[in-house]
């Protein structure tokens, strides 16, 4: 069975993704070049694993990499609105500048939970880089304090997308592109 056959249409090809990753990484490298300590890049597991791996290799500054896991979706396609931290970071982020790397921001519940958690651990600033964004789907405003910046790869149409880390029932994360899943597969 070929995974490709489950995809109705491709939204961002491998090539388009790679080009946008380079642009984002150079913006980030420029914005944080005056830091006196490494930028702490925190990937939100599991969805962000590929985007994180790609973007850190294009950031030209020293970074520390860690993962955090916040679950908001079950096996379905909609948020249950109650995110929980199921795996915390190992790095001490007190006084450090943090960049949270996400695959997609939808309702904003996951990110808001994460931002308050990281701020409460004493980060000097919390910025966010999300590959995709669905700003029209927010249930909560994502607020970044002080020097916190928000980077996004692309605005995502209101489809259920999979690939490049994003799943449906844990599947499709390994697709190298982002596509719309055939609705008959989850309806
Ligand atoms: C997805 C996605 C984001 C979050 C966005 O993760 O990777 O982390 O949902 O949704 P929100 O803005 O509505 O909170 P999910 O909880 O499905 O876990 P996963 O990364 O392991 O797939
Ligand atoms: Mn996620
Ligand atoms: Mg998921």
Automatic annotation (TrEMBL):
<dbReference type="GO" id="GO:0032263">
    <property type="term" value="P:GMP salvage"/>
</dbReference>
<dbReference type="GO" id="GO:0005829">
    <property type="term" value="C:cytosol"/>
</dbReference>
<dbReference type="Pfam" id="PF00156">
    <property type="entry name" value="Pribosyltran"/>
</dbReference>
<keyword id="KW-0479">Metal-binding</keyword>
<dbReference type="GO" id="GO:0000287">
    <property type="term" value="F:magnesium ion binding"/>
</dbReference>
<keyword id="KW-0808">Transferase</keyword>
<keyword id="KW-0547">Nucleotide-binding</keyword>
<dbReference type="InterPro" id="IPR050408">
    <property type="entry name" value="HGPRT"/>
</dbReference>
<feature type="domain" description="Phosphoribosyltransferase">
    <location>
        <begin position="16"/>
        <end position="168"/>
    </location>
</feature>
<dbReference type="InterPro" id="IPR005904">
    <property type="entry name" value="Hxn_phspho_trans"/>
</dbReference>
<keyword id="KW-0660">Purine salvage</keyword>
<dbReference type="InterPro" id="IPR029057">
    <property type="entry name" value="PRTase-like"/>
</dbReference>
<dbReference type="InterPro" id="IPR000836">
    <property type="entry name" value="PRTase_dom"/>
</dbReference>
<comment type="similarity">
    <text>Belongs to the purine/pyrimidine phosphoribosyltransferase family.</text>
</comment>
<dbReference type="GO" id="GO:0032264">
    <property type="term" value="P:IMP salvage"/>
</dbReference>
<keyword id="KW-0328">Glycosyltransferase</keyword>
<comment type="pathway">
    <text>Purine metabolism; IMP biosynthesis via salvage pathway; IMP from hypoxanthine: step 1/1.</text>
</comment>
<dbReference type="GO" id="GO:0006166">
    <property type="term" value="P:purine ribonucleoside salvage"/>
</dbReference>
<keyword id="KW-0460">Magnesium</keyword>
<protein>
    <recommendedName>
        <fullName>Hypoxanthine phosphoribosyltransferase</fullName>
        <ecNumber>2.4.2.8</ecNumber>
    </recommendedName>
</protein>
<dbReference type="GO" id="GO:0004422">
    <property type="term" value="F:hypoxanthine phosphoribosyltransferase activity"/>
</dbReference>
<dbReference type="GO" id="GO:0006178">
    <property type="term" value="P:guanine salvage"/>
</dbReference>
<dbReference type="GO" id="GO:0000166">
    <property type="term" value="F:nucleotide binding"/>
</dbReference>
<keyword id="KW-0963">Cytoplasm</keyword>
<dbReference type="GO" id="GO:0046100">
    <property type="term" value="P:hypoxanthine metabolic process"/>
</dbReference>
């Amino acid at each position: 069975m070929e995974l490709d056959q489950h995809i109705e249409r491709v939204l961002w090809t491998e090539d388009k993704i790679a080009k946008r990753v380079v642009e984002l990484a150079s913006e980030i490298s420029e914005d944080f070049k005056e830091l006196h300590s490494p930028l702490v890049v925190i990937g939100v597991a599991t969805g962000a694993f590929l985007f994180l791996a790609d973007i850190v290799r294009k950031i030209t500054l020293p970074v520390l990499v860690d993962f955090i896991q916040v679950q908001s979706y079950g096996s379905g396609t909609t948020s249950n609105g109650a995110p929980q931290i199921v795996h915390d970071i190992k790095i001490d982020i007190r006084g450090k500048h943090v960049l949270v790397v996400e695959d997609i921001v939808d309702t904003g519940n996951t990110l808001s939970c994460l931002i308050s958690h990281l701020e409460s651990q004493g980060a000097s600033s919390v910025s966010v880089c999300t590959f995709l964004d669905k700003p029209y789907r927010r249930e909560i405003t994502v607020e970044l304090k002080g020097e916190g910046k928000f980077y996004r790869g692309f605005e995502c149409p209101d489809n259920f997308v999979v690939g490049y880390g994003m799943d449906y029932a844990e599947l499709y994360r390994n697709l190298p592109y982002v596509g719309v899943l055939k609705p008959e597969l989850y309806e």
